[in-house]
Automatic annotation (TrEMBL):
This is tRNA-specific adenosine deaminase. NCBIfam families: PRK10860.1 (NF008113). It catalyses: adenosine(34) in tRNA + H2O + H(+) = inosine(34) in tRNA + NH4(+). Catalyzes the deamination of adenosine to inosine at the wobble position 34 of tRNA(Arg2). The keyword Zinc applies. SUPFAM superfamilies: Cytidine deaminase-like. The gene is tadA. Belongs to the cytidine and deoxycytidylate deaminase family. ADAT2 subfamily. Zn(2+) binds at residues 46, 76, 79. Residues 1-104 form the CMP/dCMP-type deaminase domain. It comes from Candidatus Methylospira mobilis.
Amino acid sequence: MQYALALAHKAEESGEVPVGAVLTKDDRLVAEGWNQPILARDPSAHAEMVTLRNAGLALNNYRLVNTTLYVTLEPCVMCMGAIAHARVERLVFGCSDPHRGAVCSVLHLADADFLNHRVAWQGGVLAEPCSALLKSFFKRRR
């Protein structure tokens, strides 16, 4: 999660919302990403989506079985759908998103009956520094 937080700072330096993500398999780094929708002119370029795309290329497969995704902010609906579709085994996130969180805050997609894959998840890992980075970013923007 520390590395995901460092990537969130990289997003912030680019003027993006500071969210970072890394994907591991067998305790080794497979892929990384950070928010880039402005830079990439791509509304789907959230940290999770960039990381999943990079992981698919690195593993030569869109199925990311036996992997763990670490992300600094609770994923949104789009990202949670992609995480489930990719068959990520485990999700670990920093701070909750009380406005758009699709794991446990607003929606509970990790446990949705209509999905054919369940993602084990854990929230609150390094929640304070993840939250502080986002709050600081948005305070400066307002």
